[in-house]
Amino acid sequence: MASKLSWTSVYQLEIELKEAGMKLLHTPSTSAEIVNILVVRQINQLLDRMDQSPSASMIKALDPIIEALVAKELLGHPLLYVNISVSCCICQILRIMAPNAPYSSRQLEQINQLLDRVDQSPSASMIKALDPIIEALVAKELLGHPLLYVNISVSCCICEILRIMAPNAPYSSRQLEEFFEMVVKTFEKVSFVYGGCYMNMTRFLESFSKVRLSNMMMELQEMSLAIRLFKQFLTDADSNTSSIVLMMEDIMINMIDKSETVELVHLAYESAKKEQKITSPLCWKLGKRVLLKSAAKVQQHLPFPDYVMKFIETIPATNHTSTLRAYASRKRKYSETLELRKVSSPHCGLICVKGYKVKQSVAPILEAIFKKHGDIASECVFKTVSVRQSILEVVCEVVKQLQINFFSATTIISELGEIECKVSDLEAANINVSWLRSHMENIREWDKSKKQPALLMEKKTNITLFKKAAEKDLRERNLELVKAKHLCEEAEKRVKVVYAVERKLDNDILESKVD
Asked: CA dist 158 to 176, 303, 390, Å?
């Protein structure tokens, strides 16, 4: 930034700023003069000469530019170079006016939308046009700005710059470190607010995930910042909507994947402990899902607590080959178990049911099954009667397990996975257990219906959060409307004064000619 200006230089700068601002206010947006003022004469260069915390007279000279830059004709200008110049100028205004901001969060949001129009891998001329805004965004006055909505807007703009310039970041490691420090602080602050800031932060979260900024954070080995961000996500899950939590989850999984240490895995594990399920249910769910989806990475950090490994063991196979392999393995183990039973089972205490000798404890159950469903082992792949007898005992044990736990919802649901494996093995042996499968489906439907109220309550919570955010946003918009109306009235007065002065000058000129 330029050094302190002399009094004459300051006075000259005020005059130039006033002239440029008034032209910008009163020149039609379709005119080539707009491009001349913004691009050729470069207001940005004038602003770059200004120090932070200007005098009252300098602020007054800036007013027309501040007002003109957020006019819809400029923010919506069809020329991309004009959009970029406007963005550069607004960034300079924010730097000059810090710690205050003369723009609302909605107006600053427009800068991000302007940058969103720039495609990735731009031309050399476009990169040159972007250079001032690339530099302005990482100025210490912006990265350290005290206003939250300014932090969010700057973060969104830097995200867009990183997207546009990928794979080559236009910032040094030090600048990126300061940027990530601001991002983490912003996330820590934003958990306490709703309204416009909350909505904008949601958009930034989308950009953060899309641009994969977590990868860059890991590459810079910013583990202390990564841990803070990870903790913040786990803490904030209970106060955010499902869609936001899913974005957080995606970022956290990516961070674990790129991490070379165990700290992040340990944080997820701590959040997924059983006691957290009661105190912070959504945080508990988030920690559990992150562990499940990061199973491959978690296994690299063995030995690890058994509780984490139990999560990993519950992950369903999605690969067809691995499913078949697991199926074949279960079938082989089951056959070996049956052969072992065949050799070692005692013959005492057995009762014959329809030609099958089974334990006395399960005989009544088998009789009831045969009475209702017939000989369910008639098509069994094992032809030896003793093997079929052992298989039928397994069927009876499953039925008995379901009967005992019928009135204990928690137990029967927790054991359903084990029962599922047994039924799959029975089906592999060609035992008719379709009736048992149907009964299990009924249990699942019952469990689903029991969970429905909780799901509805979660949806209601999400709607309540959205409602609060929308109400806060509406209040902010109304305040902006009142402020805009006041500014419009002030601008109208200034225009009238200018016209009056102009008429007076015209009259004076005419009078002087007459004299």
From this structure: 10, 40, 68
